[in-house]
Amino acid sequence: MFDAWDVTLNGALIPAVMQEWGLDRPTAALLSTANLIGMAVGAVIWGTVADRVGRRSAFTWTLLIFAVFTAAGALAPNFALFALFRFLAGVGLGGCIPVDYALVGEFTPRKERGRVLTAMDGWWPIGAALAFFVSAWLLAATGTWRWSLAIMILPALLVFWVRRSVPESPLFLAARGREAEARSVVDDLVRRTGAPAVPYDVERPAPRAASKTPAWLEQLTRLWREAPRVTAITWGLFLSVLLVYYLALNWMPTILKEAGLGSTAALVSGAGMAAAGLIGVVIAAWLVEIVGRKVLLAVSAPLSALLLVIVAATLDDPRVAVVWLLVFGALIQVAIPVLYAYASELYPTELRASGFGWASTMSRLGAGVGPLLFALAWPVYGLATCFMVALILVVIAIAAMLWKAPETRGVELE
Question: Would you name any one GO CC term (predicted)?
């Protein structure tokens, strides 16, 4: 929820900081670019840390870093420092999703894993909607965007609960040869749930030679050596599908405002787009174990991109465009939760967080550079053409997935 809240703030903040510091559109786009590139860096760092040190420790630090630097942005005296704080917040934020999905996926029975991982993303539209609604309310009440950032210190409070209540992944512990700790976690879960205790085996990891290569580079090398096809397809899916989402998230308030809606109405419309995503998550959680990951992605992702083209074509009547935007908000949140669940299942335990992290890095880099290029191309080629390019990228990535990627429904995690 707070992950979505923080990312969505970029779209809510761009019109406000443009006005306060007298920025043009491409300069204001650097705000989103700095945050998303920070997330790209963070995904690499924390995905590697999670696969080397542990999911639980990585989660704690990602949470603290992104909460502290997001709140620090409220005190920024100029745009340069503000963009720096957004970058640093992104470094923490970028690690959250790879670590979260690795941790939860490794605790979930395979028959329910798709639904659980997909349902996790139900908190994304809630956080995104809250970001728009709270920002609109605080802007109207205080006349400044700074309070929208200050309240993001709240996620730091979650750290105390995490440190007290969340165990380390037993799959991670087993993969690192820490059998006694893995058994302790499993035995405690069995005891707390009241399930009957039965004998079980803990697989010992194959011995690996010590390496002097930096951890992040070693993990990247292993991804392309041990799972090249999966890595290429996952990167393509993350890059294209999330580019579509971030273009809408970052620029839709500005697009709607320039189409004739007031500032508050544009923010509320963005909130409606995010809130409609709850419908999409429910649909995804319902269908993901029935039709499988690949079919659901193949239908929802291209249709989502097509809907943005329709939004752009109907901006002459902003009310009609907002209706199509709400449909987009629901459909894109069918695609993204399924993509996250799918990507976290494609890799073995020792590569799961870093594999997801590197795919996330590709999406953040694309989404960081994409809005900047979008701001430059929009006046020249028009909105509909820019969104059409995004649609073509999605279609190419989906075609590769259908051709070469495996289905993971009901498959036991390696």
Answer: plasma membrane
